[in-house]
Specification:
disordered N terminus, Transposase, mainly alpha
Length: 64
């Protein structure tokens, strides 16, 4: 019987093994972080969700 790991954050499901999440580390200016985080809250989305959406839009605009 497979053991499903509990997510460390309430209300979030553990990703399937093929969609394992990795840490992405980079630095941004403080004001950018505040604006980015504030925008995601106002849009009821996660910071990762906005990053993924922006990446998909950029790929579509620039061509894969």
């Amino acid at each position: 019987m497979a053991h499903k790991e509990e997510s460390s954050q309430p209300g979030r499901q553990q990703s399937a093994p093929e969609n394992k999440l990795e840490t992405l580390n980079f630095k941004v200016p403080t004001e950018f972080k505040k604006a980015y985080k504030g925008y995601t809250v106002a849009q009821s989305m996660t910071m990762v969700g906005l990053l993924r959406e922006g990446f998909e839009l950029s790929k579509a605009r620039r061509g894969r």
